[in-house]
Design goal:
single chain; alpha+beta; six-stranded antiparallel beta sheet; 5 helices
Length: 145
């Protein structure tokens, strides 16, 4: 039900992100999603790669000196129309679930978008969303992209 995400800590500096992406591309790791949050001294790059590449990617990053870790996040399918995101947020709010962060993962020309969610209570949040009919995307579906 959950997908893996890799968080990489990066110094705020010129070329830091480029060095990260060069390392990944030279090792044939395809970034499916990327978001970056920063503070004054460092940034956190959050990566989604195909599930079969997660452990190798994590090992590669760590062997290259990056501080990186793997964690589980929720990926949901959201109707791409006004109110689609609000529906998901309302379900979580009604269930008393806090969102630590979220980011857009994938947008198609069809009717749906994918969102990555890090919740304070992943299991309760996933159950509330599924009960309300929100599709939770599996790691197999992510790997098939």
């Amino acid at each position: 039900m959950y997908i893996s995400q890799i968080s990489v800590y990066l110094e705020n500096g010129k070329g830091t992100l480029s060095r990260l992406t060069k390392l990944l591309s030279s090792n044939h790791i395809d970034l499916l999603a990327l978001t970056i949050a920063d503070t004054s001294g460092f940034g956190i790059a959050r990566l989604i790669v195909r599930e079969e590449n997660i452990d190798g990617c994590l090992a590669l990053l760590q062997s290259a000196g990056y501080s990186a870790r793997k964690n589980k996040v929720l990926c949901v399918r959201v109707t791409n129309e006004p109110g689609g995101l609000d529906k998901v947020l309302s379900i979580l709010d009604d269930a008393g679930i806090s969102i630590e962060y979220l980011y857009s993962f994938h947008y198609s020309a069809g009717r749906d978008a994918l969102l990555i969610l890090r919740l304070n209570d992943r299991e309760t949040g996933a159950a509330a969303l599924q009960k309300a009919g929100v599709a939770v995307v599996s790691k197999e579906e992510i790997s098939a992209l």
